[in-house]
Amino acid sequence: MDTSKARSKQQAPAPGKAKEKKPRYNESEAIQAFLSSEKGITFLIDRAKEAKMQAVSGRGQARDTGYIVDEVLDFYAAWSFGCPVRRNNTLSQYELIKKIEDYCCKPEVKSIEFVKARAEEIRRLEELVHTTRKKTMLFQRLPFHKRRRSRSFRGKGRRPRTSGIRTWLAKRFRMAKMYGTELPLQRYAKSDSFVYKSFGRGFLFYESHKRAYVFDKSASSLPAGERVETERYVLVVTMDDVPCGAAPAGCLDTPVAVLGRVHMEEGVYTTGRDMRSEWHVGARTLDDYIDGCICGDADAAPREGALEFAFVRSHGGLEQGRVFVQQKLLMGLWQKMVLRGFIPVSIDELLRIGLETKVLVFPFDHAHTALYAEYERERLAPVMAKYNRTPAAKKPRKTSDVMCFEPCTGGRLLFFDVPSGKVRRCADVFCDGTRVGSVLRAAYCYSIGRVRGICMVEGGKEGGALSAANVESPGTSIPIVLAHEQH
Fold first, then answer.
1. Where are the alpha helices (H) located in 189-281, listed in sequence order?
2. Is the peptide bond preceding residue 363 cis, with omega within 30 degrees of 0?
3. What are the C-alpha distances in Å from 467 to residues 170, 381, 443?
4. Among 94, 148, 394, 417, which has the highest number of CB atoms less than 10 A from its own CB?
């Protein structure tokens, strides 16, 4: 008979009775039981003597006897009462000493006493942390949307301080910086035939480069030394039926009128003082005029029922009228007019409308002014940049796309039609074999089905048969016919 099976049968609990649970090991009770036994006291004294002898001979670490008693006490309690140090709970004397040393050499930190002892140092650190708020590193001074790592997912960034109308136009046109502002230069769409097809709908052009002033007197009654002088495109308004008497040095557009009593002229004025200074007592800005403020009294409150915008009807020229509106109300009025069917146009499309209607567009068609030179420089900037970065060995001969227009002395601007062929800008114009001018611009005109353009010809030399020769093919001349004359 197997004795182990018999022993297991004898130790098996009776049916219906719960199995007795082994009591959990309690370290404090084990230590108290060990201290009360004579064997434990004798073992501690012997271990303390042995540790003291090792410290004196140099083979051990010099430690306090009480500390050794504590570590022997902790480990012997675990060893005697079944703490799972090893699976068989048997250790040699050497292993017992090593386990005691490894177990008891851990430093003990009392948090409350540690904090009290270093309270002054902690207070100084807190003061330093609160005073160093300035960003000293370069990557800390960058805005969040420009940092590379932690905030690289933020693509919103800082919103530029631009008006809503400028953002609206920049999404649809390529903007050009000229006349101290940004104007729509070219539409992203490649075709402009829809401009001719949409003549019945109406067009909008953003004229932020213009200035407007209101006068309480007739401009003809002012001294000649008090005319307007500015480098930008000017718009002068007078408050009676007499238009400006002196003609400006630049080109004039057709005068317009509001209710038959407000006249307007456009151009470049070269005599007089700068508009930016207090050059005339009776002059005030158009915003003050629209708000209904009294002239000369800046602190006066606006009148009741002041206009939010003013429409100025034109009696001739390219446009039928202009709308003057405050900057804060511009975007709302612009969106309302676009929803009604008006088409916003760029400078290129405005020039296309001028060709179809045979009307000069100021200042983009007046090559003898400084305003046209600024427009031409900005217009050719992308083409010139590409031409200049081309290697010298691969750089082609200069074409009309990279040439600046040279106006004739005393020349006149004339419209011409090309019966057959194509004429490019900067082409030479000949009269009976003699060069008399050059072509400002030319393009296909949808209203007549052939090429139409504008040329500048020296005065009194356009009576004979005219022809044009492109820069790319100087040996071939194309006959042209004058269609309209414009001073």
1. 193-197
2. yes
3. 40, 30, 16
4. 417
Task: Indicate the SS3 state at residue 241.
Answer: coil
Q: How many CB atoms lie within 10 A of CB 176?
A: 21
Kindly state the percentage of the chain with pLDDT values over 70.
46
pLDDT tens digit sequence for 293-320: 333 344 444 444 444 666 666 555 677 7
pLDDT tens digits, one per residue of 89-139: 444 555 555 655 555 555 667 788 888 888 888 888 887 776 656 666 655
Would you list the domain boundaries of the chain?
A: 25-150, 211-344, 380-486
Please give the CATH superfamily to which domain 380-486 belongs.
Aminomethyltransferase beta-barrel domains (2.40.30.110)
* Residue among 416, 400, 403, 418 at smallest CA distance from 456: 416
Q: pTM above the 0.90 mark?
A: no
With the C-alpha atoms ordered 454, 455, 461, 465, is the resulting torsion angle positive or negative?
Answer: negative
Instruction: Find the mean pLDDT for residues 209-224.
Output: 52
- Greater confidence, 254 or 130? 130
Residue 344 forms beta bridges with which residues? Answer: 204
CB 430 within 8 A of CB 475: no
DSSP per-residue letters across 315-353 = SSSS-SEEEEE-GGGHHHHHHHHHHTT-EE--HHHHHHH
Which DSSP letter does residue 438 get?
Answer: E
Strands 256-258 and 309-314: antiparallel
Contact 56, 63 (CB under 8 A): no
The Cα–Cα gap between 294 and 348 comes to 40
